[in-house]
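U., I forgot to send this yesterday:
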Amino acid sequence: MPTAPQMSTTTRADAISATGLRKSYGDKMVLDGIDLRIPEGTIFALLGPNGAGKTTTVEILSTLISADAGRARIAGHDVASDADSVRRRIGVTGQFAAVDGLLTAEENLLLMADLHHLSRREGRRRAAELLARFELTEAARKNVATFSGGMRRKLDLAMTLVGRPRIIFLDEPTTGLDPRSRRVMWGLIRDLVTDQGVTIFLTTQYLEEADQLADRIAVLDHGKLVAEGTADELKRRIPGGHVRLQFTDETHLTAAADLFGTATPDDESLTLRIPGDGTLPHLRAVLDALDTTGIRAESLTVHTPDLDDVFLTLTGRQPAAPAHPNSQKDATR
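Result:
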């Protein structure tokens, strides 16, 4: 299964930056001073349980609401003092498809083209281009009310692209989709970055989604960023990683257990579990020790914590099941 490419961010300009963002609703602190830096042409995933402040962050960065404190810039423009410039450069796809079921797919796109002040000719050309890209051409003149959930989400994303935004906010874009439709959406999202250099700000409760797509991931809990890094960096922060050696006889297993004093042998399965972070230096040290002593292992596997472990450790909660498309979520999510 493909994984997100880890891109160098040292030479990229910031598409999104924020310092000290704070937001309260009454006596409830939703965002408590978060800082962000997201380079152009990358996918950034914001994880967190319900109520952590993910959607509030998107709403501030996309100029839908104002922060109580802090500053944010999108493509070099201040979200508070230059909101119109920000809006011209972004697209927003919410948790639930914002399409009109009484219109056809083509009519939805043409309506969006009108809102972007495209000429009739350019609007039709853009609609046809997006219908083809999202494999909706055959359904172009069907009412959206007849569409599957996956088709509606594809159309929703296509509508976001009518204005050719350079930065796209995707707030839980695959909520309610079946696994196949989710993977189709992942492919479309990857293509936006790879082919067009678009920057994606993604919020999700699907940890596999963040693992597959994101160049960098941040974990938000109770309005604070509690961790940030690549998926691999976050996994390495969590204890439980180990190397598992499989042996063909007890003699080599016993010798290896004596060699690696902190290892845990399993006489029944003839395996040895050696604590470690799974990095190349650690693996090399294990292999060098085996070579030096002449101990022979039949196989070696590396086990590292996954994002579920990261999420549970950092937030103290299991990842929540994504909401059903028709469910209502807390306004401060």
